[in-house]
């Protein structure tokens, strides 16, 4: 194996193993920041050792053993004499001794519970949304600070500060490293699902920049969703969110043309949709419904996505059912964005005038002031009604509001088409 091959192997192992490593260490040291530092120490050890000795048969177990040894050395070196640090050292030593007695496999015990604790800690509501997203991608996605910064088009120091402050906040607030129980579980799970879907959405429709999509972020979000579904198999909304992401991601190959320009849903070549992702998504939705979650917010959104996935051609789409699902979604998840989407569905089911009435009501309420998709939807509906001058003004307003260059180009093209 060449040095390059070894480096690639280390990168791949780190991406897979680092969440379990941090989770396992956090359970012992009860500090996510400290756990990540010890995990990073293990990575340094791998970078020093593996190029000469080769990648071990069980790299995850090797990394965990190295992290524990380095943690013991470091805690002793820093002469942490407090009782809690002594206890940590003793626990780490016990774990290593037990592993030595049982063989290496003991170090690779299932980390499901620890991983679940890490998920809920990284997505704790005490953190800002931006901090939860950054910390989740760092601790559970295995992304570097630079990778997160590039994904969200923000400076690397900004992301680094968010992560540092997030870890400090968790420590200062004394956030326990545990899975919430009882009524708290529902609220905390909603926070976790929100973070994962935010990551997916930023990849599916980039807020800013030159590219309309960032598929790598979608992949990261789906990977987190699959991990969570494996850890919480009886939670319908977890399966529903994963189903929603998989069905939406199935359209990725058809959402842009050869030049990277956006292709709208009704114009997409549906033979290019990923049928495997659709099958997985439909199966996940069925599981969520079987678990009694048919009317959860993510299940309803997945059901809407499934209506599109089941239509082999745009004209075969069941728009009345989609409009009804959006009406139900507006009841369980009241939101002006949901209402805007309902306007589109109603327009397709009952005509553009009916949809425009909903969109105009949103405009009068100013609940979506500054949101570029409101004038974009109004422009589309006005154009269908032949009110071209108003449509052009709406598209131009939408183009001014969006921060995505690809989307701005599309909107200006539609504005020019209204003038022809």
From TrEMBL:
<feature type="domain" description="RNA polymerase sigma-70 region 2">
    <location>
        <begin position="19"/>
        <end position="79"/>
    </location>
</feature>
<dbReference type="Pfam" id="PF04542">
    <property type="entry name" value="Sigma70_r2"/>
</dbReference>
<protein>
    <submittedName>
        <fullName>RNA polymerase sigma-70 factor, ECF subfamily</fullName>
    </submittedName>
</protein>
<dbReference type="Pfam" id="PF20239">
    <property type="entry name" value="DUF6596"/>
</dbReference>
<dbReference type="GO" id="GO:0003677">
    <property type="term" value="F:DNA binding"/>
</dbReference>
<dbReference type="InterPro" id="IPR007627">
    <property type="entry name" value="RNA_pol_sigma70_r2"/>
</dbReference>
<dbReference type="InterPro" id="IPR013325">
    <property type="entry name" value="RNA_pol_sigma_r2"/>
</dbReference>
<dbReference type="InterPro" id="IPR046531">
    <property type="entry name" value="DUF6596"/>
</dbReference>
<dbReference type="InterPro" id="IPR036388">
    <property type="entry name" value="WH-like_DNA-bd_sf"/>
</dbReference>
<dbReference type="GO" id="GO:0006352">
    <property type="term" value="P:DNA-templated transcription initiation"/>
</dbReference>
<feature type="domain" description="RNA polymerase sigma factor 70 region 4 type 2">
    <location>
        <begin position="120"/>
        <end position="170"/>
    </location>
</feature>
<feature type="domain" description="DUF6596">
    <location>
        <begin position="188"/>
        <end position="288"/>
    </location>
</feature>
<dbReference type="InterPro" id="IPR013249">
    <property type="entry name" value="RNA_pol_sigma70_r4_t2"/>
</dbReference>
<dbReference type="InterPro" id="IPR013324">
    <property type="entry name" value="RNA_pol_sigma_r3/r4-like"/>
</dbReference>
<dbReference type="GO" id="GO:0016987">
    <property type="term" value="F:sigma factor activity"/>
</dbReference>
<dbReference type="Pfam" id="PF08281">
    <property type="entry name" value="Sigma70_r4_2"/>
</dbReference>
<dbReference type="InterPro" id="IPR014284">
    <property type="entry name" value="RNA_pol_sigma-70_dom"/>
</dbReference>
């Amino acid at each position: 194996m060449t040095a390059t091959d070894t480096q690639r192997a280390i990168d791949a192992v780190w991406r897979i193993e680092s969440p379990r490593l941090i989770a396992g260490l956090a359970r012992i040291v009860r500090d996510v920041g400290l756990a990540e530092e010890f995990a990073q120490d293990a990575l340094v050890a791998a970078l020093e050792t593996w190029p000469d000795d080769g990648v071990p048969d069980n790299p995850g177990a090797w990394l965990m053993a190295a992290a524990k040894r380095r943690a013991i050395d470091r805690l002793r070196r820093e002469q942490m004499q407090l009782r809690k640090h002594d206890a940590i050292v003793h626990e780490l030593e016990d774990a290593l001794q037990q592993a030595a007695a049982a063989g290496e496999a003991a170090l690779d015990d299932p980390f499901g519970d620890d991983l679940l604790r890490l998920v809920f800690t990284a997505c704790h509501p005490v953190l800002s949304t931006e901090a939860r997203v950054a910390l989740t991608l760092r601790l559970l996605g295995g992304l570097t600070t630079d990778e997160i910064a590039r994904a969200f088009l923000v400076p690397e120091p900004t992301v680094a500060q968010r992560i540092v402050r997030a870890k400090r906040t968790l420590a200062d607030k004394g956030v326990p490293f545990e899975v919430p129980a009882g009524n708290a579980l529902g609220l905390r799970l909603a926070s976790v699902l929100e973070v994962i879907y935010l990551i997916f959405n930023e990849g599916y429709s980039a807020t800013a920049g030159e590219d309309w999509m960032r598929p790598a972020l979608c992949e990261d979000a789906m990977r987190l969703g699959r991990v969570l579904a494996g850890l919480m198999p009886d939670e319908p909304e977890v399966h529903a969110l994963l189903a929603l992401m998989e069905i939406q991601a199935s359209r990725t190959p058809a959402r842009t043309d050869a030049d990277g320009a956006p292709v709208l849903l009704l114009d997409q070549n549906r033979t290019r949709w990923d049928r495997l992702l659709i099958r997985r998504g439909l199966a996940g939705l069925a599981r969520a419904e079987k678990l009694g979650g048919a009317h959860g917010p993510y299940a309803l959104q997945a059901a809407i996505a499934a209506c599109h996935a089941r239509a082999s051609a745009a004209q075969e789409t069941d728009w009345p059912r989609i409009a009804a699902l959006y009406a139900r979604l507006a009841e369980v998840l009241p939101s002006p964005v949901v209402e805007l989407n309902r306007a589109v569905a109603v327009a397709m089911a009952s005509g553009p005038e009916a949809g425009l009435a909903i969109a105009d009501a949103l405009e009068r309420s100013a609940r979506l002031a500054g949101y570029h998709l409101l004038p974009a939807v109004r422009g589309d509906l006005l154009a269908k009604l032949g009110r071209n001058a108003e449509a052009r003004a709406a598209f131009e307003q939408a183009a001014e509001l969006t921060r995505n260059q690809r989307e701005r180009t599309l909107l200006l093209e539609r504005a020019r088409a209204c003038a022809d």
